[in-house]
Every structure is written in structure tokens, then in C-alpha cells.
Design goal:
CATH architecture of the largest domain in chain B: 2-Layer Sandwich
Number of helices of chain B: 14
CATH class of the largest domain in chain B: Alpha Beta
Low-confidence stretches of chain B: 1-11
Largest sheet of chain B: 6 strands, mixed
Shape of chain A: flat
Distance between the termini of chain A: 45 Å
Distance between the termini of chain B: 73 Å
Number of strands of chain A: 0
Oligomer: heterodimer
Shape of chain B: globular
Strand content of chain B: 15-25%
Helix content of chain A: 55-70%
Number of helices of chain A: 8
Largest sheet of chain A: none
Largest interface: A-B, 31 and 39 residues
Low-confidence stretches of chain A: none
Strand content of chain A: under 5%
Number of strands of chain B: 26
CATH topology of the largest domain in chain B: Nucleotidyltransferase, domain 5
Order of helices and strands of chain A: HHHHHHHH
Number of domains of chain B: 3
Chain lengths: ~230, ~600
């Protein structure tokens, strides 16, 4: 890939190392856009700093003095690609989903109830619905009456999140090992990895949705904001 | 190869136009500081009013506002709000909205104004053209680049309509900025750092944003808004006064009286906010006792209750999206005239968990912040980089009937997403889908997207890729292509509120090319001459009508100033024409006011 402006060979996908011009690329892998190896384990802060550092190099605001529309348009496309990529990668669950999809191994994953919550799943759903309905009607008393139960359900759910996290970490570690062996490039999918990955992805998505619902149901104000949608 | 260009040529600088719902302000850069464009009387507050007479004559700003009670059907207040209000809302206002709404197939509001149907976009275009001419006249240079703050509640299509209005008004470069983000920029320009919560609340809209500022990067973490503001209070008070007036007997000229009562109500609201009480006295003609009504702070408290509920909902939503707890903010900035009502200011501080920052004029900081944006757009180097947040999530309906987001709220702009569609019939040539939007409320239909001209293929074979992009101004663009073939697909986007994409594009392309800059001076001179002649003619008639009420001194000084203006009018010196016109207006000010009062008495009888 060559820079559209100075024809220099590009090292970074979104920015030319020689002339500093942003590149109007929008069909690009998310990891390539951020210029990072395709690992699954990333501390949130490190990702954010990478994103911010790149934003301070690609953003259209940096190129306003150029009356040439091509430059500003290139910056717009580069910034959009950067934003879309960061959005995909900054959330752990989405990151795993992206890696599965990009490897061609994303099956129709449905949300799976974790083993530890299977007995409670129906109860949780029932209590949450009751609390949400009470909130919608503005019935504070009925809503309060569910809170203790919701509190204990939240503790159970948090336990399940912890356990799932451990499983997720194993899946992530396996992938990252494969990445390292491939010299920080996209690896061949390790045998049988996708089965585990899909399973924990399903559980993770169920738990993400559950925790969101629980958090909303526990706060009178927050529930209002969510209920109006 | 692109090289760094030199400094922008003189006369091409961006100017900030804060078109508020009730008052507009124009801010420009003067050296390192800023200043406001003022009218001939030195006032920087330009009433957002537009009058179009049946013969097509146009008045805007203060002159339109002065005549609003005399010509309520021709004078539109708050043109910007026409972009988001629907016919039902407006009809429900009864005599307070006297403009006939033209019902038709257009999804854009059309009013019967000045002899024909005019769309909300056209009406805004006239008003923006007036502001542009004011700026050019004041700055004595062409103004064709503008930064326009818009309410967060504006959908991507409302924004597009507004930017089309600006293009129709003659602006070549149109940049929009979310008004809450603009206010945050005003704070940052004063050295603000950390996390800030901003609320802009004026006559028509509430806009809330939370932004984080670190070094050179400004990240708007979340924003939200609603079309609700001080106008509600004015309407409620005016409706109460009208009901009381009607209780005393039938009112003729209801539209005129209603418009007058709106102005009275607005003054009463200010009194209530400043002093905690308002004593209203309205003359209803010579044969009836005047209407007297006293309002207290209890009345104001009652009136602001529904506004408080809206504010709570919007602020909670924004705080939740930003993942910020009340009290975590390093600063809270309240802007917009409505925040002068202490009950509302305290309510907002309460939700955001912090006392508001002092040292910011609530009515100026949006314009000044927009000017900061203008500075960034002009400079060779940037001090700050702004990553704005998407205020309106976009979603598609899934199999289950539930809407799921494809572009979430609060993500950084510009942002895009691709969706693949396919056909379910053999040789199906068209595919359509509904695009939903969600701000701080529930999911609502936003637009219908129709893709046509699909090459004939078996069912399920075409892969129609639709790319949706929200740009930094919050406007949406849609592109569609079919991967297997290179044949161009047809695409139409029909918003629920706003112009269809094809109409928008055609209107944009049909706009006249920018005038040559060498004609600029001549154009400006001609405009000033026209205004001068109009002033002289008007005063001649007025003096005849009010001859009895004029003192000898008054007659003499007006005659003297009129002569002076006549002498310079056909000359080339713009400064002289302007200053003579100014002096004449000053001399005739009380005469004009007396004439208006007298006419109003005649109308209200």
C-alpha cells in the first residue's frame, strides 16, 4: 500500500510515516487500524491510549488549514475507520466476537445461560420483569419490595460473571499464545478453539445483558431512563 | 503532492451564528478575542423573527418582532423550531400559532406565508440570509463560511434541513456543531480541564452533554436533548391570560391579541424569574377594563414542574451513557436563557451533583464556543481536537420485531457501519427497510431506505451492502452497492420528518453559484441604499400620520437628519451612509414607538 500523497510505502495503515497524511482507508481489520497485534487480552487503558494517540494524528481538525478537500476527506475516512475499530475492540465480548467472525468461525451464537445460573434463570427473569413493570407504573412500594431479592440475585450473577471470566481468560490466553507463535500476526485457529470460544461468548453475552438489566432495575432513576425506551 | 497552504485569504473567515429559538447572536473573531455583530441600535441580541408580507417583502429580526402584533399572520417567531414541530403540535396551539399549515404529501412542514406555501427550510433560509447580510454589513467583508450550533435533539435529517437552509442563504461552507459541545468549548477556551457537564436550555430546546478534556483531546462522552424549553412557560401563561380575557367578553382580532399576550407572558416570565412576582396589566381596548393578573413564585414553580421531569430524564440518560456518577464532574456549565430561572438551575445542579461554574454569560457562551470551533477550522495548527458523540442511535428491526442498534448512542463521530441485505423473491428489483432512531426516549421510526435497480438474480443471491455513516456534524449519509455487479443501484432515503434525499440533492445542485467577490462592495452599497430609502419613505409617512403628536424640536431634528442622509445616499461612502442612517433612526426612535403603540391600540379595540 502506498501513500496517496507522497507514494511512500505505508507502514501504518491509516497514516503515512513520511508526509503525515491520513489515508482514506475504510476496509481494514480493526487491529490493523489501531496498529496493534491481534491479541485478545488488552488492558483497557492501553487500548484507550493507543486510540487517543492515533486520534491526535488522524483527526480532520488537524488538517483544517489544507484547503484541498482531498486531505480533509482522507482524514474523515481515516478517523471513521479508527472510531469503528476502537468501538469493536474496546469491549471484551465484542473483541472475542470480532476475532471469531474474522476467522470465519462465528456460528449463530445464542445467549447461553451459565451452568451455575440455570436453576435461577427463570426466577431472575420473573423478578426482573416484575420490578420493571412496577417501575413503569410508578409503583414505588411494589418496586421496593423486589429489591432485596434482586440484591441477592445480583450477588449470584456476579459470581457467575467471575466464573465465566476465568473461562474466558483461558480462551483468550490460548488465542494469544497462537498469535505469539505466529510472530504477532493473525494465526491459524487452534484445533477445537472455536468450540470453547463460541460457548464462552454465548455465556458472556447473556451475562452482559443480565448485568445491564440488573443494574437498571436496582436504581429507581436509572430504571426510568431505560424504561422510557 | 499537497503542500501546506498559506494563511486563509482575508474575508473568508468563519463566523459563528447562534440561531437561538427566540434570540440569535453572531460572534466573530477580533484579533485574539471575540466580539458580537450588533444591529443599528448597538444590540447584539437579534430576535429570531421573520415577516413575509403578501407581496413577498421580507423583514427579519427586530423590525419583524416590532410589527408582530400588527401582522401576526405574516410574522413567524422561532423559525428554527419549525424544523422539529409537527402540524399536530402547532395546530394545538390555536390562536398562538396563526399561520395556516399547508397539508400535503410533503413530510416537511409547509406554511402559507407571503402569498404561497413555504417550507420550514425555506423560512429558515430567509432568516439566515438576513443574519448573513447583517454580518457582512457589520464586518464590511463577504461572509460565506458559518459555524452553526444546533440542538442535540435535532435528528440527522433536521440537521441536514438546517444546513440546506444555510446553503440557500448563500453560505458556501456550513459547519454544524452540537450546542452543548459548543458551550463546553467556551469553557475549555478559558482553561477548563477534566470532566464537564453542560446544559443548554433556551426557549425551544434542552441540550445536555458530558465531555472529558485531557491535554489536546476533547472527548464528548455522551449527549442528549429534547425539544422543550421556555416557550412552554410563555404559552401556558399566555393561554391563561387569553382565557381570562375571553371570560370578560368576546375578543375580536384574536390572533393579534394572542400574539400580544405572548409578548406580555414572556415579560412576565422574566419578572417571575428575577423578582418572584409579576403584575400583568393588558389593555383590551377603550370599552373594556384592562386585564389585570398577578402571578407569584408558586405559579412559576407549578409551570416548571413538567420541565423538571424532562430535565431529569435527559440528564440521567446522558450520565448513564457517559458512565459518570453525579458528583464526579469537575465542572457544570449552565447556558441558555431558561437557566436564569433559579428553580431550574438548582434542579440541574442537583442532578449533575455540582454547583454551576460562574463567569459565563448563559446567553453568550454557545455563540462564543461556536466561535472557538470556527478558530479551529481556520488555523494552521490545532490546539484542540474534538471528538463529538452521536446523540441519536440508529437501529434496525430484527426478526423478533425488536429494534437493535447498528450505530449506538454516544459513540465517537465520524462513525459508520455496514449492513448486508438480500432479496427473498426471484429477480426482486427493490429492497426497502425502516431505519429507527433513539435519542433519550424510545425507538422511533426515522427514515425509510429504498434500494432499487437490483440486478435480476435468484432469491437470496444478491449481497446488497448498505453503508451508513454519521459525520462529525451529526448528519447521516447512506450508500448502497451490490458486491457481485458494478451496476449502479438506485437509492432513496425518505425521512419521517424532512426532505427525501433526492429532493435535497436536487435542491443543493440547483443553488446558484457564489457571486464574484468583486461584486460584493457594489451589492453592499446597493443594499444600504435600499435600506436608507426605505427609512426615509417610512418616516415621511409616519410624520404625516403622527404630525399632531410631534414637538417642534422633534420635527426639526428628524428633518435635519433626513436631509443629511439624502445627501450621502447616492454617494460611495458606506461609512457615511451607515452613520447617517443610524443617526436618523436614533432621532426617530420615540416617534416610531408612538406610532406602533397607536396602531396597536386601534387593533386591540
Amino acid at each position: 500500500m502506498k501513500c496517496w500523497n507522497c507514494e511512500n510505502a505505508l507502514e501504518s495503515a491509516l497514516l503515512c510515516g513520511r508526509c503525515g497524511m491520513p489515508q482514506p482507508v475504510d476496509v481494514l481489520g480493526a487491529f490493523e487500524a489501531l496498529g496493534i497485534p491481534p491479541r485478545l487480552q488488552w488492558p483497557a487503558e492501553e487500548l484507550e491510549q493507543t486510540y487517543e494517540r492515533m486520534a491526535l494524528q488522524c483527526h480532520p481538525d488537524l488538517f483544517r488549514a489544507h484547503r484541498d478537500e482531498r486531505v480533509i476527506n482522507a482524514a474523515r475516512v481515516a478517523m471513521r475507520t479508527l472510531n469503528d475499530s476502537y468501538r469493536t475492540l474496546k469491549d471484551r465480548t465484542k473483541r472475542l466476537r470480532y476475532v471469531l467472525a474474522a476467522s470465519g468461525r462465528l456460528a449463530e451464537t445464542t445467549r447461553t445461560v451459565p451452568a451455575g445460573l440455570q436453576e435461577s434463570a427463570q426466577i431472575i427473569s420473573r423478578i426482573l420483569t416484575a420490578a420493571e413493570e412496577a417501575r413503569q407504573k410508578g409503583d414505588r412500594e411494589a418496586w421496593e419490595s423486589h429489591q432485596d431479592h434482586l440484591a441477592s440475585l445480583q450477588v449470584q450473577a456476579e459470581g457467575a460473571v467471575e466464573r465465566s471470566r476465568v473461562n474466558l481468560q483461558l480462551v483468550e490466553q490460548q488465542w494469544d499464545d497462537a498469535v505469539r507463535r505466529a510472530g504477532d500476526h493473525w494465526p491459524d485457529v487452534p484445533d477445537g478453539w472455536e468450540v470453547q470460544a463460541q460457548r464462552w461468548l454465548g455465556e458472556q453475552e447473556y451475562l452482559d445483558a443480565l448485568m445491564e438489566r440488573l443494574r437498571a432495575a436496582r436504581s429507581w432513576e436509572r430504571a426510568a431512563a431505560v424504561a422510557s425506551r | 503532492m499537497v503542500r501546506q497552504t498559506s494563511a486563509p485569504s482575508a474575508g473568508q473567515g468563519y463566523v459563528a451564528f447562534d440561531c437561538g429559538t427566540s434570540v440569535s447572536r453572531i460572534a466573530f473573531a477580533r484579533g485574539d478575542g471575540s466580539a458580537f455583530v450588533t444591529d443599528l441600535a448597538g444590540d447584539a441580541r437579534i430576535p429570531s423573527a421573520l415577516a413575509i408580507s403578501p407581496q413577498g417583502g421580507i423583514l427579519a429580526g427586530m423590525p419583524a418582532r416590532d410589527r408582530q402584533t400588527l401582522y401576526p399572520h405574516h410574522t413567524v417567531l422561532s423559525p428554527k423550531a419549525l424544523l422539529t414541530h409537527d402540524a399536530q403540535d402547532l395546530n394545538a396551539r390555536g390562536p398562538f400559532f396563526p399561520h395556516p399549515i399547508v397539508s400535503g404529501a410533503s413530510p416537511l412542514l409547509q406554511l402559507d406565508l407571503g402569498g404561497r406555501a413555504r417550507s420550514a427550510v425555506e423560512i429558515n433560509a430567509h432568516f439566515l440570509a438576513h443574519l448573513r447580510r447583517m454580518a457582512e454589513s457589520f464586518l464590511e467583508r463577504p461572509v460565506d463560511s458559518g459555524v452553526f450550533p444546533v440542538p442535540t435533539a435535532f435528528s440527522p435529517f433536521d440537521r441536514r434541513g438546517f444546513s440546506l437552509a444555510a446553503r440557500m442563504a448563500g453560505f458556501q461552507q456550513v459547519r454544524l456543531i452540537d450546542e452543548a459541545t459548543a458551550a463546553a468549548l467556551a469553557w475549555i477556551a478559558q482553561g477548563g480541564r477534566g470532566r464537564i457537564g453542560v446544559c443548554v436550555w433556551g426557549a425551544g430546546y434542552l441540550s445536555v452533554a458530558v465531555a472529558s478534556v485531557r491535554d489536546r483531546l476533547v472527548r464528548v462522552l455522551a449527549s442528549g436533548g429534547v425539544a422543550s424549553g421556555g416557550d412552554r412557560i410563555d404559552q401556558a401563561l399566555a393561554a391563561d391570560l387569553l382565557a381570562r380575557a375571553q371570560a370578560g367578553g368576546p375578543i375580536h382580532n384574536v390572533a393579534h391579541v394572542a400574539r400580544h399576550l405572548l409578548a406580555v407572558a414572556e415579560a412576565a416570565k422574566r419578572d417571575l424569574a428575577a423578582r418572584g412576582k409579576a403584575d400583568v396589566g393588558v389593555s383590551l381596548g377603550a370599552d373594556r377594563p384592562p386585564l389585570r393578573q398577578a402571578y407569584t413564585s408558586a405559579d412559576l414553580d407549578r409551570l416548571i414542574e413538567p420541565l423538571k421531569l424532562e430535565a431529569t430524564r435527559v440528564c440521567q440518560s446522558v450520565l448513564a451513557d457517559a458512565r459518570v456518577q453525579p458528583g464526579d464532574l469537575d465542572g457544570v456549565l449552565l447556558a441558555g436563557g431558561l437557566t436564569r430561572i433559579r428553580g431550574l438551575a438548582e434542579h440541574l445542579s442537583g442532578i449533575l451533583g455540582r454547583e454551576p461554574l460562574a463567569g459565563f454569560d448563559p446567553e453568550e457562551c454557545v455563540a462564543l464556543g461556536a466561535l472557538e470551533r470556527a478558530r479551529v477550522l481556520e488555523r494552521e495548527k490545532s490546539d484542540i481536537v474534538v471528538l463529538d458523540a452521536n446523540p441519536c442511535a440508529l437501529g434496525l428491526e430484527g426478526q423478533s420485531g425488536q429494534v437493535s442498534p447498528i450505530l449506538e448512542r454516544s459513540i465517537h463521530l465520524p462513525a459508520g457501519n455496514r449492513e448486508i441485505f438480500t432479496t427473498y423473491l426471484e429477480r426482486q428489483a427493490e429492497v426497502a427497510f425502516e431505519l429507527f432512531g433513539q435519542g433519550t426516549g424510545a425507538w422511533a421510526p426515522l427514515a425509510r431506505v429504498e434500494v432499487s435497480n437490483i440486478p435480476p438474480m435468484p432469491a437470496g443471491a444478491p449481497a446488497i451492502e448498505v453503508l451508513l455513516v454519521i459525520d462529525e456534524d451529526g448528519q447521516l449519509s447512506v450508500q448502497a452497492q451490490e458486491s457481485a455487479r458494478s451496476k449502479r443501484l438506485g437509492l432513496e432515503v425518505r425521512p419521517v420528518r424532512g426532505l427525501p434525499a433526492s429532493v435535497f440533492q436536487a435542491t443543493l445542485e440547483a443553488l446558484p453559484a457564489p457571486a464574484e467577490s468583486s461584486d460584493f462592495e457594489a451589492g453592499l452599497r446597493e443594499e444600504l441604499r435600499q435600506r436608507g430609502r426605505f427609512l426615509l419613505e417610512n418616516l415621511r409617512e409616519l410624520s404625516k400620520r403622527q404630525a399632531a403628536s410631534m414637538t417642534r424640536d422633534e420635527k426639526q431634528i428628524i428633518a435635519k437628519k433626513a436631509r443629511e442622509l439624502e445627501e450621502v445616499l447616492d454617494g460611495a461612502d458606506l461609512v457615511e451612509i451607515r452613520s447617517c442612517a443610524q443617526e436618523l433612526e436614533e432621532a426617530a426612535r420615540s416617534l416610531v414607538q408612538r406610532d406602533i403603540d397607536a396602531s396597536m391600540q386601534a387593533v386591540l379595540r
